[in-house]
Amino acid sequence: MLSHSDIWNAIDTIAGRHGLSASGLARLAGLDATAFNRSKRISKDGRKRWPSTESVAKVLEATNESFDAFLAGSGAFMQVRAPNATRSSVPLLGLGQAGSGGFFDAAGFPQGQGWDEVAFPSAPEDGSYALEVSGDSMQPLYRDGDIIVVSPTMQMRRGDRVVVRTRAGEVLVKVLYRLTPKLVELHSLNPAHPPRILAMKDVEGMGRIVWASQ
């Protein structure tokens, strides 16, 4: 069952994925700009306010997102799957370790020793892997200790949340702003961290974030 916080987390996640504030997402969906403001989520007498089904539908239509993506963004994806859904696992690594050599092959797929595992329902068979987040550059979406699942094969587009590994050993969890054959521009949701522009020759691997535990 989706909780009040799950629903609002999903809306915030979609907004962040498209580089929008909650107000910006509401405007894009043709709603009042204040519809998704945090002040509207709890009434003055303490009652929880929920977005309407119509509002959610308009958000999904305006952003071209699927309902599955909405559920994934809620942070309750595992709980809303059917009880008898097939459960498997994906390899798990700490974010700090991921910059070290030997954990990925030339195509960006996980390899070698040192990986742990994390349970995941119907894990995609595309070489996906999980990382445990450290640092604050993606707050408030991702916090220290969150688990993110990354697909190295899924197509990436502007506004997607991505993991980028550099040849210098950095592992960046960012929002994709621009991608060309020669460079990639990455933005952080935390304004304390400035955008990064990397030459593609300095990028060892990239993957799209497809799920997060929040």
Structure description:
This protein is an alpha+beta fold and 214 residues long. It has two domains: 77 residues, 434 Repressor (Amino-terminal Domain); 127 residues, Umud Fragment, subunit A (Ribbon). The chain has a nine-stranded mixed β-sheet with strand order 2-1-3-4-9-5-6-7-8, with helices on one face. Strand 5 and strand 6 form a beta hairpin. The longest helix has 14 residues. The protein is globular and about 55 Å long. About 6% of the residues have low confidence.
| Shape call | globular
Mean pLDDT over all positions: 79
Q: By CATH's scheme, which homologous superfamily of the largest domain applies? A: Umud Fragment, subunit A
Number of helices: 5
Helix content: 10-25%
Uncertain stretches: 76-87
CATH architecture term of the largest domain: Ribbon
Strand order of the largest sheet: 2-1-3-4-9-5-6-7-8
Main β-sheet description: 9 strands, mixed
Radius of gyration: 18 Å
Assign the structural class, choosing from mainly alpha, mainly beta, alpha/beta, alpha+beta, or little secondary structure. alpha+beta
Instruction: Report how far the terminal alpha carbons are from each other.
Output: 16 Å
- Count up the domains: 2
Q: Please give the number of β-strands.
A: 9
Approximately how much beta-strand content do the residues carry? Answer: 25-35%
Question: What is the CATH class of the largest domain?
Answer: Mainly Beta
Please provide the ordered H/E string of secondary-structure elements: HHHHHEEEEEEEEE
